[in-house]
Design brief:
Helices cover 81% and strands 0% of the residues. The protein is built from ten helices and no strands.
Length: 246
Amino acid sequence: MNLFAEALAWIFAPEQWTGPASIGAALAVHLWYTGVAVVIAAIIAVPLGWLIGHTGRGREIAVVISGAARAVPSFGLLILLVLLFGVLNRPEAGVVTFVLLAIPSILAGAYAGVEAIDRAVLDSGRAMGMTQWQVLWRIEVPLGLPLLVAGLRSATLQVVATVTIAAYVALGGLGQYIIAGIPLRRYDMVLGGALLIIALALLLDLLFAVLQRTAVPRGLRAGRAARDTGRASAARTATSHTPVPS
């Protein structure tokens, strides 16, 4: 408990929030790597996922590639790319590592969102005279958006965690306090860095949870609310008609 208090004291110490090595600067670096990696991964994976979900082709290949990418140890991949890129290109090696780790979740969310749509809805759109392009943009993309946001959510949290170990190759971020604190036996710094990373991950997860809920089309939200109301009403009716044992 004392260590926890010391970690909080270290976090809120004024000297930790001033200068180029401040917590704010480390947080900015952490968010920069995370944001750049997720945006680049989304640019690559989202169109590809929509194409796979719309056409139904290449899904098996995407599943195999995604599974293989998730099985690759992130730390080992980072060290390998740093050695291949050279020590002067560590930021580029880090970004490539984070992008490769973010692509599988985003790709899966993109094509799963399209595949989960009821085929009858798509057939109705085609029956109304919609082209394939209109079906994609007016039906598949809006209805598949919640699962896509879920994929972005998973990818972001994975990248946030991986950026932590990037401090091992001097890329900065919040992980630097853990890496630097261990050999110095500054366990208040180590725990403080861990708490900051946890707080950042929880905040981003909450943000994406709100976005995922907002991404559900209004019609679907209204339909779900009506179904929930109907189920609750049916449950109350069934309960009120249940005979009380004597």
